[in-house]
């Protein structure tokens, strides 16, 4: 049946509505007592900022834990059982154990290990996040194109900052109103935004 | 001295305007596909093993879903849901996917899973609705409680943990799915197309990903995402059309899907952008490059009255006029009669006054009629008689023409001392009257003389023309040119005065300062004329005020002494009448030849444009936009995206980050392109050309495209789900409950845990 935009009358529309409506259709595969958690619709900005904050907190906790003890010297001298120079505390010290565990984890080559950035031999942050793979700005010089016609532009109008192709297009540019100028600039991302 | 001859290009004549195009395009209808069918067969068949996975490609442009055993996804629909309460029927309604397009209200209420421009799930209610729809159409009956088949779902590269967590929660908790696996769509597509080592360029609806793959393992730390895809193309084209045809997009309510179809049907990737844009608007062949899109329009109603109706209308108008005239005539007649009666009465009074016995009685009579004295009364009577006579003449025409007598001024000749006071006053009055009369006579005479002179000039002109046609025509043409030139100069002057720094403006300021200053002639004062510099004595001095006036009011044309516009018109009509070569076209030269205008070619194509026509005002011409819009992926600065272009990204990955990699050259031999953007015509060729330009000579670059760029991700996922080792990567429900919502089992076609 054709959509309502073309020839259709009340009846056919109503019948189609009933046919397509899913509200009344039973959905037995759903758990009946399911309640969606509150406020789970987050937009990208919120998700990323929350992830960023979580990341920060992990880093700060890692910095205070035993996981950040430095690597032991490997010059052949007998390594002490504990890294703590104080022999009284050395027996109760777990720093060596933690360190060895971390080294072992590091050496198991896996996809994770190859990705984690190593700072002093320790895993700090994973380097594949949504923000980290975003492309960097271009290092090449940008080519200018006429804002009105799209042809390559050699000239810039000093008053409005629009690029234009030739004198004829300039006549058009001269007679643009402020809103139009801003719309042209917005297509290029160069409009002024008042906050 | 060397002598050069420069070839003078003959001024190319006016370009021939083209015929209106035969194939115009129209805006598409809403993409209503009808109701997608429900099929229970596969579900029933797989009930025995319960192992057939449901593959869902959760894309930002469309959701593709089906069983792993099928060749193509059974369901393909946009990720939209409309849930609202209908006022008239007073019930809740819910529509999913392309079915929302059947109703305008539904379409208005539709929400997408994704925010515009992003491929991270945003609206989970819509996601739930979409999943409900998928299960329904695939025939899941929920008898065992929930969905009882494993699910493979695609997610964007480097998907956020939060999103995966919520998605898992929905799948495991709400739908009781036994096992779920996630993967990246582009990697699935690459795997399906038999790729082992290469560079995957997945350019889809909302973003473009570049992923280097070595021995089936993706190097995700070197992957990149460029935020440009088909959705951004649509937005860009909308913006461009909005500024090119102001008001047309909003007034005719062009929708997103229609612009999307425009992008899909008309845009292509140019091989050499700079060259092609320069040649795009050339007249030759423009009708092939320019594509005309006709929007729906309404013809302006020109009610063609038939002959009879016109005649009747005229009759009625004349009738009305006649009736009014009659009424007016009657009124005038009445007034005339009344006046005559009054005159009679006054005459009577005069007689009585003259026959009055005493002066006092006469005085009384006069006072009654409010007249100063007899003379005044007499005068009044004479006046009234004159007006009556005139009117009689005009209306009734029964009295003969009054002879135009020269009114006599007898008193003027008598010297002053012979008259008394009254006489002197009377004499002054008479002198005044005579002066008036003389002045009027003079004015009339002058007018006649002027008319005579005009007629004389005209006669001379005609004689000249008859005598020597050629030179007359040349004269007129030269005159016309000078007028055109003067108009142009005047316009330029006006424009100059607007600009503060121009020469004209500075001169003007100088004049003003000079006039306003106390000693305009500088410090040296003229001897003898200390205070008076004699400004104003000479008439030409006042001309300076005309120079000062900035002439900003554009309606000044009527006030100007030289009405250049009218002059031009007059000359042109003359020339049109007599000069055989001067045609309508030549007058248009004053209005600029539209066939030579670049802007006209840009906005209206090589066709004539009629301002009045409603049909032509509702047309788009797509010429430069056809290549400008897809070009952004190669030069994102065109649309203001502050990221490097596609080729530069490949260059940075291959030449910098992976420069020492052993497999680098092998990767370049298999540059794999997938995703909806790859379906633009000319995409691969362009990529090859540009890559060859930036990569080292010995690196052999080969670019290939997925077999069906849009579907291969789903097909790859389906293929992968059929393999043995894939099953090991599914996370079962028990595991998920135990290890937490963020648990992810990594595999070579999916994301890594962050």
TrEMBL record, chain A:
Q: Where is this region: Disordered?
A: 1-90
| A biological-process GO annotation | chromatin remodeling
Q: Which InterPro entries match?
A: INO80C/Ies6, Vps72/YL1_C
Q: What keywords is this UniProt entry annotated with?
A: Nucleus, Transcription, Transcription regulation
Q: Where is the composition biased (Polar residues)?
A: 52-68, 76-90
| Pfam families for the chain | YL1_C
**Places the protein is found:** Nucleus
On whether Transcription regulation is a keyword of this UniProt record, the answer is: yes
**Record-level GO cellular component terms:** Ino80 complex
Please state every residue range assigned to the domain named Vps72/YL1 C-terminal: 144-173
Q: What is this protein called?
A: Vps72/YL1 C-terminal domain-containing protein
Source organism (scientific name): Oleoguttula mirabilis
From TrEMBL, chain B:
Which region ranges are annotated with the description Disordered?
Answer: 1-31, 392-421, 433-463, 514-538
Q: Which CDD domains match?
A: ASKHA_NBD_Arp5
The record's Gene3D superfamilies line, in alphabetical order, gives: 3.30.420.40, Actin, Chain A, domain 4
Compositional bias ranges of the Basic and acidic residues kind:
435-463
- Similarity comment: Belongs to the actin family.
Q: Name the SUPFAM superfamilies for this protein.
A: Actin-like ATPase domain (SSF53067)
- The protein in question is named Actin-like ATPase domain-containing protein
């Amino acid at each position: 049946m054709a959509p309502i935009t073309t020839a259709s009358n009340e009846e056919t529309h109503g019948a189609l509505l009933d046919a397509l409506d899913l509200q009344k259709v039973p959905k037995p595969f759903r758990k009946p007592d399911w309640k969606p958690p509150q406020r789970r619709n987050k937009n990208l900005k919120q998700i990323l900022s929350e992830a960023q904050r979580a990341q920060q907190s992990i880093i700060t906790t890692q910095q205070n834990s035993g996981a950040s003890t430095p690597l032991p010297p490997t010059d052949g001298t007998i390594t002490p059982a504990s890294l703590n120079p104080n022999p009284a505390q050395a027996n109760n010290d777990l720093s060596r154990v933690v360190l060895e565990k971390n080294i072992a984890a590091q050496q198991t080559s896996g996809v994770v290990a190859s990705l984690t950035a190593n700072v002093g031999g320790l895993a700090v942050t994973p380097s594949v996040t949504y923000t980290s793979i975003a492309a960097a700005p271009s290092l090449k010089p940008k080519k200018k194109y006429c804002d009105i016609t799209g042809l390559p532009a050699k000239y810039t109008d000093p008053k409005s900052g629009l690029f234009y192709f030739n004198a004829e297009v300039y006549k058009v540019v001269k007679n643009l109103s402020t809103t139009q100028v801003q719309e042209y600039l917005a297509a290029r991302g160069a409009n002024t935004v008042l906050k | 001295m060397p002598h050069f001859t420069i070839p003078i290009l003959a001024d190319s004549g006016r370009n021939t305007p083209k015929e209106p195009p035969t194939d115009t395009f129209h805006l598409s209808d809403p993409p209503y596909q009808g109701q997608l069918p429900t099929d229970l067969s596969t579900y029933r068949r797989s009930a025995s093993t319960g192992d057939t996975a449901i593959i869902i490609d959760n894309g930002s442009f469309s959701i593709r879903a089906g069983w792993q055993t099928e060749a193509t996804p059974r369901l393909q629909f946009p990720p939209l849901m409309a849930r609202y309460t209908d006022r008239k029927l007073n019930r809740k309604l819910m529509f999913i996917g392309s079915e929302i397009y059947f109703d305008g209200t539904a379409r208005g209420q539709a929400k997408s899973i994704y925010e515009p421009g992003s491929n991270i799930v945003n609206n989970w209610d819509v996601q739930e609705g979409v999943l409900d729809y998928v299960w329904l159409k695939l025939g899941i009956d929920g008898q065992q409680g929930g969905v009882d088949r494993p699910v493979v779902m695609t997610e964007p590269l480097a998907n956020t943990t939060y999103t995966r967590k919520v998605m898992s929660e929905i799948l495991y908790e709400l739908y009781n799915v036994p096992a779920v696996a996630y993967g990246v769509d582009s990697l699935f597509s690459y795997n399906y197309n038999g790729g082992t080592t290469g560079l995957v360029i997945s350019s889809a609806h909302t973003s473009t990903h570049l992923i280097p793959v070595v021995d089936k393992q993706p190097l995700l730390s070197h992957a990149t995402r460029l935020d440009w895809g088909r959705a951004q193309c649509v937005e860009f084209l909308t913006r461009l059309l909005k500024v090119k045809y102001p008001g047309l997009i909003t007034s005719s309510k062009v929708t997103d899907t229609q612009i999307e179809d425009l992008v899909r049907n008309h845009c292509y990737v140019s091989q050499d952008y700079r060259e092609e844009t320069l040649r795009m608007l050339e007249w030759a062949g423009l009708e092939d490059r320019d594509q005309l899109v006709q929007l729906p329009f309404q013809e302006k109603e020109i009610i063609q009255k038939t002959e009879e109706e016109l005649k009747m209308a005229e009759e009625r108008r004349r009738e009305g006029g006649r009736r009014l005239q009659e009424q007016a005539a009657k009124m005038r007649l009445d007034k005339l009669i009344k006046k005559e009666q009054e005159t009679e009465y006054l005459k009577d009074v005069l007689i009585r006054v003259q026959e009055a016995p005493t002066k006092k009685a006469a005085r009384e009579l006069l006072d009654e009629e409010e007249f100063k004295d007899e003379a005044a009364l007499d005068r009044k009577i004479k006046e009234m008689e004159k007006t009556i006579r005139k009117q009689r003449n005009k209306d009734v025409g029964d009295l003969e023409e009054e002879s135009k007598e020269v009114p006599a001024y007898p008193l003027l000749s008598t010297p002053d001392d012979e008259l008394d006071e009254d006489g002197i006053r009377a004499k002054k009055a008479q002198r005044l009257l005579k002066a008036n009369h003389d002045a009027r006579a003079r004015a009339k005479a002058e007018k006649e003389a002027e008319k005579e002179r005009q007629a004389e000039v005209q006669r001379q002109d005609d004689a000249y023309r008859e005598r020597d046609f050629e030179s007359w025509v040349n004269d007129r043409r030269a005159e016309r040119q000078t007028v055109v030139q003067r108009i142009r100069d005047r316009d330029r002057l006006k424009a100059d005065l607007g600009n503060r720094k121009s020469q004209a403006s500075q001169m003007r300021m100088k004049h003003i300062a000079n006039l306003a200053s106390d000693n305009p002639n500088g410090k040296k004062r003229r001897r003898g004329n200390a205070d008076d510099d004699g400004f104003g004595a000479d008439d030409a001095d006042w001309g300076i005020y005309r120079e000062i006036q900035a002439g900003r009011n554009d309606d000044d044309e009527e006030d100007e002494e030289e009405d250049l516009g009218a002059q031009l018109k007059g000359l042109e009509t003359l020339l049109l009448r007599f000069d055989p070569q001067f045609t309508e076209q030549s007058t248009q030269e004053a209005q600029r030849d539209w066939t030579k205008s670049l802007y006209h070619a840009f906005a209206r194509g090589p066709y004539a444009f009629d301002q009045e026509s409603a049909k032509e005002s509702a047309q788009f011409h797509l010429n430069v936009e056809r290549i400008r819009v897809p070009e952004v992926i190669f030069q994102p600065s065109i649309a203001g995206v502050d990221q490097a272009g596609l080729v530069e990204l490949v260059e940075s990955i291959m030449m910098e980050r992976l420069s020492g990699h052993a497999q680098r050259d092998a990767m370049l031999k298999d540059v794999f392109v997938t995703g909806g953007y790859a379906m633009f015509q000319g995409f691969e060729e362009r990529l090859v050309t540009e890559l060859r330009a930036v990569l080292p000579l010995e690196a052999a670059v080969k670019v290939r495209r997925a077999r069906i760029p849009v579907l291969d991700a789903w097909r790859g996922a389906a293929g992968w789900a059929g393999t043995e080792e894939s099953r090991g990567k599914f996370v079962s429900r028990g595991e998920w409950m135990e290890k937490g919502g963020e648990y992810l089992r990594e595999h070579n076609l999916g994301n890594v845990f962050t």
